[in-house]
Structures are given as C-alpha cells and as structure tokens.
Structure to design on (531 residues):
C-alpha cells in the first residue's frame, strides 16, 4: 500500500521544466500586433534533449528565449525546477548562432568566463572546471590561442564549454551550428551527442535542419508556421533504437523518420510562403493607399 | 619606414624652398634658422616651461573629459532614458564652435587655468561622448546576453563585457581627441594667457619673428607626432588579439 503510494507520488512529481500556455505578440509598426507564439504548453524532464524544429521565422527561437528569461511573454509562465522564470541568470545557459567567444580572452579564459560569476566555488575549482570542459570539447591544445586564431566550429565548441562551465540547469542552444559548413556541422553533432551522454544536461536545441534534429534529439517538437503552435511531438527512440552516432544518418529507420518529418515540414513551409506573400501584397497595397 | 621617408621629404622640400629663395626669408625662414630660434627660446626665454605648461593643460583637460565621457557614453547607449535625455543636449553643444565660446568661458572662469581647461573640455567632451556611445551600441547584443546567462550583474556586464569589448576603439578615439585638444589649446592660449606654447607663438608674431613662430608650431607638431606614435605603439601591444 505504502509503496503504491510512493510510486503514485513519483509520477505526480512536477516536471523539471514546464511551459504553460505561452503567448507572445510583437508590436508591428501601425496596426497593432503580430502573434508569434500561440498557446504553447509543454513539459520537459530532467536530462531530456528536446529539439524545437520548425520553419524559419516561426517563433521557435523566441520561445526558447522566453525559457531563457531573455524575452518576456504576454501570457503564460515558465517554471524551471519549481521556480518561475523571471529573467536571465546562470541557471539558463545559452549558446547562440553568432560567435560569442570574447576576442580579448584566450580559449581557456573564455571557457573560464563561464565560472566567473559563480560564488559557489573557489578560484582553484574554477580553473579545474574550465580545464575539464576544455578537454570535453577537445580544445586543450588551443588553450592559449586567442579566438581570432581558431575556426568557427572551434568557437562554437568554446561557447558550449563556457556555457557548461557555468553549470546551468538547462542548456539552450539557438541554431549553434547554423553558420558552419556541412562537415564541421556533422563533426560537432557527433561531439554534442558524446557531451550529452556524459553530462546529461537538460537541453533545448533550436534548428530547422531535420537530420540534425533526428540525430540529436530525445524528443522533437515540431512547430507550425507563425504564430508557432506545436504540431507534433516525436520521441525519436520509438523509431531509432540504441545509441546514436553520426552513422545513424545512413540507416533505413532514419530515412523513414526523416521523410515523415519532412512531409510535415513541407506543409508548414507552404503555409509560411503563402503567409509571407500575403503580407507582401498587403504591405504593397498599404504603401499605394 | 615609409612614414619616416615622407617626413624627411617634407623637411627637404621646406629646406630647398627657402634655400633657393623661392619664398622670402620673412615668410618662410629655412629650417636651420628655425632650429636656432628654438634653441634660443629654450635657453633664454624659458620656452621649456611654456611647453610643460601646455602639455599639462592638454592632458589635464583631456583626462577630465575622458573620465567623464567614457561612463556617460556607455550609459547613454545602455539605458535608453539617459540617451534620450542627454543626446539632444550633447548634439546642440557639439555644434557650437569652440572658439566662439572662449569669450564666454573667460567671463565665467577668468583668465586663470580653469578657463583653458574649460575650453579644451568643451571642445572634446561632447564629441567624445558621442563617439563612445556609438561604439557601445556596436557591441554585439549576444555578448551582453552571454553575460546575463552566465550570471553577470548589469554593472559587471558594463565593465567586464561592454567596456572591455570596446576598449580598442576607445583608445583610438582618445588618440584622435587628444589631437583636437592641441588645436583648442593654442586658441585658448592665444586669446588669454601669459604662458604656454600658444602664448609664445603669439608674442613672437607681434615682433614678426617668423623663426620663433615657426619654432612654436614645430614644437606642437613634434609633440603631437610623438604622442600619437606612442599611443599607436601601446595599442598594438595591448590589443595583440586584434
């Protein structure tokens, strides 16, 4: 009886990250507002790797920024580990698409910057943590390089290591590999899988690349065209079994899942195009009037 | 190397122009005469003291305006309200020709050191504050957001990220502003002063001592050149990562 109670209680435990009916509009110049996110709710478990997949400009990045506290929403709330998100802080680490390693710091100093504002640990520990994450992304040989001497892929690895060094509760990644060439991108995807296996960080990763999504995700959340709503959530392990590597991209189940998602995405792209065309026509008419 | 050549070329041109009598002695004495005049000024009329006074005025005013302009410029760009309040004022004053303000500043501050400092400050502070604020706006927003998401406080972001990120540009802008300081200094010293390089030039003019006028001008040029090169050198050393 007691054990039953406990297990029932476990299943009722609040989810690690919870989004409740998020709504957001942007102010557009004349006639009021453009809705970008429409009533999105979801729950994310601790250690889960969730991909936000959707057409460009659909609002998925905005949604992730709301989770990070970098943007406010008009309605709804975000709870992280039971606490309401009210602004950016060290609990919500962010890796951007743009290169954000600081040019005035070396690779090592950049990684260590992630620990700079931690008061839970001492200076010696900060050095150790920085060295640990530098090694995790395989850049220990470049520790003393300034970042203008290293490639774009390496800079993103620095950014990932720096964010992890801050020990956030959730890792938010906004198309971090979007500006990289295909080979580098694939290499970093493999590396991120490895990092994820070791660190087990709760992660939200935004992309519009279907292959990337399938390789990396525990769960793929597919969004509609603007305003973003959830079309479907796909648990990748139901389609692909075993540990994933870059080689997974060459398997039959992968192709099937990819085609399924692509079809869904194609419909959405169509909607986006029509929406954009309509907007263009309206703007044109507005100018003529 | 090339820079040194062009400098030697300029002196050579000057030398030949005066040597071959292309221009009258009275308007353009040859370099040798000017050097002798400079030597005499230093030995007999305490010109070194004039130089020190001028340098002290320039650096005093320059540092005062830099220390005020850097934080204000950064705040203007990071807090919209400060920007909106200060920008029209800054723009208005920026367009006032500084020499026109000299009489007013003398009435306000007298003819002592404070009026000279005020002239230089007026001439540089308002320009500098805008340059700084523009630089601050160019700091990528992702740098700031990175700071926020590793737990930096606004104040820490201002100094550890925004200021640090723009520092090379700040040093460049300060170097340029320092040059303007000399222009305004000579104006201030000509109008109301009994010491300084500008004063020396102006007194020499009264007796049409062209070599001494030239010596004074040359001194300003050399000081400017040396400071500029020193700052450039420091810039290369400090910002190796660029």
């Amino acid at each position: 009886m007691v054990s039953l109670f406990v297990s029932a209680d476990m299943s009722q435990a609040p989810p690690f990250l919870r989004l409740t009916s998020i709504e957001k509009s942007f102010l557009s110049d004349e006639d009021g507002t453009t809705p970008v996110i429409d009533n999105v709710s979801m729950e994310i478990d601790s250690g889960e790797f969730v991909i936000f997949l959707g057409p460009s400009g659909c609002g998925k990045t905005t949604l992730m920024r709301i989770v990070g506290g970098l943007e406010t929403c008009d309605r709804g709330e975000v709870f992280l580990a039971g606490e309401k998100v009210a602004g950016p802080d060290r609990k919500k680490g962010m890796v951007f698409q743009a290169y954000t390693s600081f040019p005035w710091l070396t690779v090592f100093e950049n990684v260590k910057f992630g620990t700079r504002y931690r008061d839970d640990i001492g200076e010696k520990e900060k050095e150790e943590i920085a060295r640990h994450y530098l090694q995790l992304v395989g850049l220990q040989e470049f520790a003393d390089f300034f970042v203008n001497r290293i490639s774009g892929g390496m800079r993103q690895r620095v950014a990932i290591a720096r964010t992890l060094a801050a020990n956030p509760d959730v890792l938010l990644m906004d198309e971090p590999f979007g500006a990289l060439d295909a080979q580098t991108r694939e290499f970093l995807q493999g590396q991120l899988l490895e990092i994820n296996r070791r660190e087990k960080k709760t992660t939200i990763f935004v992309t519009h690349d279907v292959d990337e999504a399938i390789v990396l995700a525990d769960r793929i959340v597919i969004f509609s065209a603007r305003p973003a709503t959830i079309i479907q959530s796909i648990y990748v392990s139901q389609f692909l079994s075993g540990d994933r590597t870059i080689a997974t991209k060459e398997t039959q189940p992968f192709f099937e899942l990819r085609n399924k998602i692509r079809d869904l995405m194609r419909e959405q792209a169509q909607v986006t195009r029509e929406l954009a065309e309509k907007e263009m026509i309206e703007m044109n008419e507005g100018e003529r009037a | 190397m090339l820079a040194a050549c062009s400098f030697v070329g300029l002196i050579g041109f000057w030398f030949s122009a005066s040597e071959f009598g292309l221009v009258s002695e009275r308007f353009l004495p040859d370099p040798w005469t000017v050097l002798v005049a400079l030597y005499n000024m230093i030995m007999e009329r305490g010109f070194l003291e004039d130089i020190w006074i001028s340098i002290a005025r320039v650096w005093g005013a320059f540092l005062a305006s830099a220390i005020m302009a850097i934080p204000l410029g950064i705040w203007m760009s990071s807090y919209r309200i400060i920007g909106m309040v200060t920008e029209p004022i800054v723009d208005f004053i920026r367009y006032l020709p500084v020499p026109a303000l000299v009489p007013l500043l003398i009435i306000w501050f007298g003819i002592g050191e404070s009026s000279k400092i005020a002239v230089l400050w007026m001439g540089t502070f308002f320009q500098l504050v805008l340059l700084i604020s523009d630089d601050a706006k160019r700091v990528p927003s992702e740098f700031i957001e990175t700071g926020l998401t590793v737990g930096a406080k606004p104040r820490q972001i201002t100094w550890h990220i925004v200021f640090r990120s723009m520092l090379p540009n700040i040093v460049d802008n300060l170097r340029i502003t320092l040059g303007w300081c000399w222009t305004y200094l000579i104006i201030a010293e000509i109008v109301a002063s009994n010491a300084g390089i500008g004063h020396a030039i102006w007194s020499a003019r009264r007796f049409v001592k062209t070599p001494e006028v030239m010596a004074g001008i040359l001194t300003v040029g050399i000081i400017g050149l040396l400071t500029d090169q020193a700052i450039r050198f420091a810039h290369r050393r400090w910002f190796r990562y660029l």
The CA atoms of residues 27 and 176 of chain B lie 31 Å apart. Residues 154-191 of chain B form the longest helix (38 residues). The interface with chain A takes residues 140, 142-143, 145-146, 148-153, 156, 160-161, 164-165, 167, 239-242 of chain B (CB under 8 Å).
